[in-house]
Design goal:
This protein has 146 residues and is mostly helical. The protein is 68% helix and 3% strand. It has a two-stranded antiparallel ribbon. A hairpin with a 2-residue loop joins strand 1 and strand 2. The protein is flat, with a radius of gyration of 21 Å.
Length: 146
């Protein structure tokens, strides 16, 4: 008698999803993602800082410096965070998102107190979401659970 294939929710279980991209494409995406995200973040910060006024050389410089710093820090977080335990992994993303949001919010001209409060609120929500995600998708050491 043949044994039935294991099922998941009524559907037959299959192997891992096939990877349709080459290793070179993955390397390029790992480099392009922080750069593109940094450029978007730098533009957003510069736009917040000028408050709809004219674009100046200092505003462009501010945007590019912000983009470079953001991209480097994001690249660092993407490189280091997956190697950490799930709690520290979630804390690293929490700190990154909270600081990034707080800096962006502070460029809009709001008070430091309000910027800090808003970034702490965003950081708290980020911690809850990231901790839940890592707690349900990783073991205690930080290895992905399938």
């Amino acid at each position: 008698m043949a044994q039935a294939a294991p099922t998941t929710g009524g559907m037959p279980r299959r192997g891992p999803t096939p990877d349709i991209f080459s290793p070179h494409t993955h390397v390029m995406a790992r480099l392009a993602f922080p750069i593109v995200t940094g450029l978007i973040y730098g533009y957003w910060a510069a736009a917040n800082r000028r408050s709809g006024g004219p674009i100046t050389g200092w505003n462009l410089l501010f945007g590019f410096v912000t983009a470079i710093v953001f991209a480097l820090v994001l690249f660092g977080v993407l490189t280091i965070a997956p190697r950490l335990r799930r709690e520290v992994h979630a804390l690293m993303w929490t700190a990154f998102i909270g600081i990034a949001f707080g800096f962006l919010y502070s460029q809009s001209g709001e008070s430091i107190l309000r910027s800090t409060g808003m970034s702490l609120a965003i950081a708290a929500v980020t911690f809850v979401v990231m901790f839940y995600r890592f707690y349900t998708h990783e073991d205690a050491v930080g290895h992905r659970v399938r």
